[in-house]
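Sequence in, structure out. Go.
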Amino acid sequence: MLINNPRFCMQKVMVEMTFGDLDKQVLSKLMRKQRAQLSKLLQQGIVANYSIAFDETKIWIVFNSAYNTFEIMEMVTEFPLSNYADTFVQDLCFSEQSSFLTEETSLN
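Output:
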């Protein structure tokens, strides 16, 4: 079966962070810092993509395959919200997204 064959998988890693009963004001303040840090990692190519739940109680982060789980967890511990999160790490075989929304528009 192709999907379970590592040669055919992208081998990315998804980190899921869930925040419990953290005060909403504290959560919002730290979430702004968290988003800024994630955006930097996204620009550097370390993170492939990330999503935040509407109520800001959960974040899903997909890391590129160049990093092993240990390196990823070291990065995660540096996140502003890491001390308040239950963190789950999962190896992925595929993580697809449309490039339609990420393409730059030419004004020429």
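Check: Residues 41 and 60 are 14 Å apart (CA to CA). The chain has a mean pLDDT of 81.
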